[in-house]
Amino acid sequence: MTDLHLPLDRSAGRLAAQIAAGFRAAVRSGRLTAGTRLPSSRDLARDLDVSRGVVVTAYEQLTAEGFLIARRGDGTRVAPLARPDTSAAPPDGAPPRHGATPRP
């Protein structure tokens, strides 16, 4: 499992939103890749010293957004379609075409 390093600022608002933002950033940067298994909500709550409900709320939000997949018995993983930010121009230098589907 990857070291998540999710710093929380307890004076800066909702902890669940901060956790979710940290996971989003980790996925977009490529630090967390598709299929990566995340810690259980209990384990992450203990590690971050927050209530389990805070982590459950963050995981549920990220699941609804398509960043995570939760399966009973298999845990919570980064969704297969969650990829790093690839907003840069294509490698061949051609401008991106709107509505075009990239080939594998």
TrEMBL record:
A Pfam family the protein falls into: GntR
Origin superkingdom: Bacteria
Gene3D superfamilies assigned: Winged helix-like DNA-binding domain superfamily/Winged helix DNA-binding domain
Domain annotation HTH gntR-type: ranges: 13-81
Any one GO MF annotation of this record: DNA-binding transcription factor activity
Region entry Disordered, spans: 74-104
Keyword list, A-Z: DNA-binding, Pyridoxal phosphate, Transcription, Transcription regulation
InterPro entries membership: HTH_trans_reg/aminotransferase, Tscrpt_reg_HTH_GntR, WH-like_DNA-bd_sf, WH_DNA-bd_sf
Matches recorded under SUPFAM superfamilies: Winged helix' DNA-binding domain (SSF46785)
Protein name (record): Winged helix-turn-helix transcriptional regulator
Source organism per UniProt: Actinomadura geliboluensis
Upper classification of the organism: Bacteria, Bacillati, Actinomycetota, Actinomycetes, Streptosporangiales
